[in-house]
Amino acid sequence: MKRILLALAVAGFASLSAQAAEMDFAVVDTNADGAVSLEEALAAGWEWSEEQFGEADADGDGALNSEEFAAAAAG
Fold first, then answer.
1. What total number of domains does the chain contain?
2. pTM confidence score
3. Domain boundaries, position 67
């Protein structure tokens, strides 16, 4: 029983962490287009240079999708 409760607690914390990361993306994506531009990131207080932003933009489309944003935010 203790193992089941522990597993449920761990799963719950992981879910909350994922939701928090998604919420941060949604907050930074002020125009809600599903992508974060450098301007949106800077306005939200992220201190990225154009070069750092470009490195985080894995697909080179000029904006960060939620996966690219999460990877960049994680370090």
1. 1
2. 0.69
3. 2-74
